[in-house]
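Researcher: Let's do a round of design. I'm pasting the structure tokens now; please hold your answer until I've finished.
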């Protein structure tokens, strides 16, 4: 019986459900994400794919012997807190089905499925951590020192999950094995719905970064401290959140979000001593993103000072705007002439790898247009259409590897 994308997605539908937030919470190296990794290894092994986990925790499933210049597809299994079912897993499940179809078609040529860890950056704070380590975009010592909300370092968590932190870092041999990387992903927007098409080809990824704004005030008792005597960082933080929205709203195509705000110590009857909040800022022009961060930082310091507090802004990650390889994009259009070419405001491992290997993306229609929330959705027929489109593109790309070997 030929497995379907929706059949594979049904196999993992109950893994990592979040009863409090709704949707799924599958942080990297959590029990849920580990179970998903085991599911993928099982599904790949049952197809006779050769599975290995590399030094950075990336899982590779090879159809045939690993070889340089291979055609690689895949995505990620980790999620944001309370995320949807499809962001990441759809690309992994579609890759498995596409590989089945390539086998049925007798396709030859070196090919692999890659599953990248910590794409969302939900546990250790930096998105696409696996592909950044692979490509050398982040120094291993910086990555290994990253701490999760419980204070555990990546080094500690990696070691507890059977990885050797001393081996983390740029992996030239693994990079050489990627000739082309093509990632299929649920569309995180309404482009395909509005165009009434099931599949799109990716053109670009909006530049985006993450900055931590730490506002320090004076912790004190909620009942004994007069209002006039307070230096309350929560009040300053509230003004900063509203300022972020007003600054970004004035700039076309800018997107600014404070999705995470953590008061310390966080007691109901306690005036916080510090509030950490994280700014997610995106714009097509990297220079304008930089300008907006400076503007927001200046105003945050002013707003903090008005409350007798101080604000410190520190950059956690930045990914410039990415335009996918035009030759690959056009080649995908030749294979999928009906597919519109669409940009995305969401980051992906394909974006990180773009400076190292030819990378492209396919997007599959999401009727709700919503992502990073439980209502993210893909209809079964579109999921199968996406996998078939991926198989068609991979088959075309494999012709190159045949010529090379
Ligand atoms: O945040 C993003 O854009 C991606 O979903 N990691
Ligand atoms: Mn994703
Ligand atoms: Mn995502």
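Researcher: That's everything. Go ahead.
Model: Designed sequence:
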């Amino acid at each position: 019986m030929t497995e379907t994308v929706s059949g594979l997605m049904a196999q993992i539908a109950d893994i990592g459900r979040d009863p409090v937030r709704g949707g799924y919470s599958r942080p990297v190296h959590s029990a849920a994400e580990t179970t998903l990794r085991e599911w993928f290894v099982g599904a790949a092994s049952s197809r006779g794919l050769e599975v290995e986990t590399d030094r950075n925790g990336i899982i590779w499933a090879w159809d045939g012997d690993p070889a340089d210049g291979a055609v690689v597809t895949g995505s990620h299994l980790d999620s944001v807190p309370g995320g949807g079912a499809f962001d990441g897993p759809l690309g992994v499940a579609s890759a498995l089905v596409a590989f089945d179809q390539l086998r049925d078609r007798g396709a030859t040529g070196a090919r692999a499925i890659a599953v990248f860890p910590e794409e969302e950056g939900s546990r250790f704070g930096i998105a696409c951590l696996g592909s950044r380590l692979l490509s050398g975009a982040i120094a291993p010592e910086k990555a290994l020192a990253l701490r999760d909300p419980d204070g555990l370092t990546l080094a500690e968590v990696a070691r507890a999950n059977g990885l050797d932190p001393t081996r983390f870092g740029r992996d030239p041999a693994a990079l050489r094995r990627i000739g082309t990387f093509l990632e299929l992903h649920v569309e995180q927007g309404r482009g395909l719905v509005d165009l009434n098409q099931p599949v799109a080809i990716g053109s670009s990824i909006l530049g985006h970064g993450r900055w931590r704004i730490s506002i320090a005030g004076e912790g004190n008792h909620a009942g004994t401290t007069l209002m006039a005597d307070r230096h309350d960082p929560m009040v300053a933080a509230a003004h900063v959140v509203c300022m972020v929205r007003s600054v970004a709203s004035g700039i076309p195509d800018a997107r600014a979000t404070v999705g995470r705000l953590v008061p310390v110590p966080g007691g109901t009857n306690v005036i916080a001593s510090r509030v950490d909040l994280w700014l997610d800022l995106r714009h097509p022009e990297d220079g304008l993103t930089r300008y907006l961060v400076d503007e927001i930082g200046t105003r945050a310091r002013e707003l903090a000072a008005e409350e007798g507090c101080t604000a410190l802004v520190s950059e956690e990650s930045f990914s410039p705007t990415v335009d996918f390889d035009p030759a690959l994009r056009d080649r995908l259009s030749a294979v999928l002439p009906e597919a519109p070419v669409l940009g995305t405001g969401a980051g992906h491992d394909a974006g990180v790898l773009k400076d190292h290997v030819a990378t492209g993306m396919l997007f599959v229609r999401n009727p709700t247009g919503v992502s990073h929330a439980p209502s993210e959705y893909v209809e079964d027929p579109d999921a199968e259409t996406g996998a078939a489109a991926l198989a068609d593109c991979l088959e075309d790309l494999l012709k190159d590897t045949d010529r090379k070997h």
